[in-house]
Amino acid sequence: MSVYLTAIIKSTPGNAEQLKAILKTLVSGSKSEAACLQYDLHQVQEDPNLFIFHEEWASQQELDLHNVSPHIKKFATDAAAILDGAPIIHITKRVD
């Protein structure tokens, strides 16, 4: 069963472009995973420091593997100094 996830990530003021570059690298690595069914990055127009991911994973087990992947670890290291708080993660379900 698919797992749907929304992640909200915010950069510190003045670091949106640097964070965007790091996030685009994260997108490339994540989309290369077979279990990744959707991995879309959005930037909020009214607040360019705010980024939102919409993700779909094939299963919880595969999402768990993604969360310990090298590109997730690299993101955590590369972005640590420019994040405004911890990412906010929401596991959701599709409402038909």
Question: What is the topological layout?
Answer:
Elements: E1 3-10, H1 16-31, E2 36-43, E3 50-57, H2 60-66, H3 70-79, E4 88-92
Helix pairs in contact: 1-3
Précis, in short:
Pfam families: ABM. This protein has 96 residues and is an alpha+beta fold.
Features:
single chain, 96 residues, alpha+beta, Alpha-Beta Plaits, 4-stranded antiparallel beta sheet
Can you give a write-up of this model?
This is Quinol monooxygenase YgiN. Pfam families: ABM. Residues 3-91 form the ABM domain. Keywords: Monooxygenase, Oxidoreductase. The protein has 96 residues and is an alpha+beta fold. A four-stranded antiparallel beta sheet has the order 2-3-1-4. Strand 2 (36-43) and strand 3 (50-57) form a beta hairpin. Helices cover 34% and strands 30% of the residues. The chain is built from three helices and four strands, in the order βαββααβ. The model has no long low-confidence stretch (mean pLDDT 96). The two termini are 15 Å apart. The protein has helices spanning 16-31, 60-66, 70-79; strands spanning 3-10, 36-43, 50-57, 88-92. It has a single domain, classed as Alpha-Beta Plaits, CATH 3.30.70.100.
